[in-house]
């Protein structure tokens, strides 16, 4: 059946990143509110983001131009965890992905 699993919800880098970023910003203003619980959530979410990265450095997403869009979001998650181009092989691989997809006219596409 074509639509057999259409109502099943999945994990997405975009949604996970949106929550990580929201909690990261929230903690700047309210650092003591449920700090341990939020830290545990963020740690688990970052593990998911790390595991979801593909060999080419990208992430598979569900919205927009799925790989480019999800990679952009996943990089935001890693930045919230303190990962940068300088200290993370994962981030360096991720940065290589969009560079490999730039079109001749300067724009991006897959």
Question: How would you sum up this structure, described in words?
Answer:
This protein is mainly alpha-helical and 110 residues long. The protein has one domain (13-100). The protein contains four helices and no strands. Helix 1 packs antiparallel against helix 2 (35-52). The longest helix has 18 residues, at 35-52. The radius of gyration is 16 Å and the shape is globular. The model has no long low-confidence stretch (mean pLDDT 91).
Short description:
The chain is mainly alpha-helical. 56% of the residues lie in helices and 0% in strands. The chain is built from four helices and no strands.
List keywords for this structure.
single chain, mainly alpha, 4 helices, isomerase, EC 5.4.99.7, 110 residues, lipid biosynthesis
The portion of residues forming beta strands comes to under 5%
The helix/strand class is mainly alpha
Mean pLDDT: 91
Shape: globular
Tally of contiguous helical segments: 4
Order of helices and strands: HHHH
Distance between the termini: 28 Å
Tell me about the biggest sheet? none
* Number of structurally distinct domains: 1
Spans of at least 5 consecutive residues whose pLDDT stays below 50 are none
> What's the gyration radius in Å?
16 Å
Number of strands: 0
> Which bin fits the share of residues in helices?
55-70%
Compile the SSE list and pairings.
Blueprint: H1 13-29, H2 35-52, H3 66-80, H4 89-100
């Amino acid at each position: 059946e074509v639509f057999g699993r259409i109502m099943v919800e999945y994990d997405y880098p975009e949604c996970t990143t949106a929550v990580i970023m929201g909690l990261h910003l929230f903690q700047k203003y309210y650092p003591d509110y449920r700090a341990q619980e939020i830290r545990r959530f963020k740690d688990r979410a970052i593990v998911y983001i790390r595991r979801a990265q593909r060999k080419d450095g990208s992430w598979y997403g569900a919205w927009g131009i799925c790989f480019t869009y999800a990679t952009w979001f996943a990089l935001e998650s890693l930045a919230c965890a303190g990962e940068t181009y300088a200290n993370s092989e994962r981030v360096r691989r991720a940065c290589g992905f969009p560079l490999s997809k730039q079109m001749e006219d300067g724009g991006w596409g897959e």
